[in-house]
Amino acid sequence: MIIEVLKSKIHRAKVTQAELNYVGSITIDEDLIDAANIIPNEKVQIVNNNNGARFETYVIKGERGSGTVCLNGATARLAQVGDIVIIMSYAYMEQAEAREYKPLLVFPDTDNKLIK
After folding, report:
1. What pLDDT, in 10s, does the model give residues 16-66?
2. Is 90 a catalytic residue?
3. Which ranges in the chain belong to alpha helices (H)?
4. Do 95 and 3 contact (CB within 8 A), yes or no?
5. Farthest-apart Cα atoms in the chain, separation
6. Facing residues of 46 across strands?
7. How far apart are CA 103 and CA 84, in angstroms?
């Protein structure tokens, strides 16, 4: 049996921009997506800790080291600049593999920079 499990997450990132007049997606600092093993165009689920909104979109690579977490298009209606979000990616695995798999957990600082 194949199941869907958490592959990685960026925990408690701060929304830095919301661009309503853009063609969908979330733009994320390349340092953060690399650390979470997320690739451009990958589908992610986002949870807004401030208002409880949960939604899915795809990732656009943002400028490395910028701290950018920008909701684009319709998703810009689901968060405000300064909101705290959790960005999660998932993978399909056989149950045996999933039992052993450890998701990558990324905890950025308050400026969305990797904690070293």
Report:
1. 999 999 887 999 999 999 999 999 999 999 999 999 999 999 999 999 999
2. no
3. 30-35, 95-100
4. yes
5. 44
6. 55, 87
7. 20
Name the burial class of residue 102, with classes exposed (0-12), middle (13-18) and buried (19+) by CB atoms within 10 angstroms of its CB. Answer: exposed
Catalytic residue, chosen from 8, 25, 66, 89, is: 25
Does the annotation mark 25 as catalytic? yes
Q: What is the pLDDT of residues 56-100, one digit of tens each?
A: 999 999 999 999 999 999 999 999 999 999 999 999 999 999 999
Distance CA 2, CA 98 (A): 9
Catalytic residue among 58, 89, 90, 92: 58
For residue 65, the Cα-to-chain-centroid distance in whole angstroms is 16
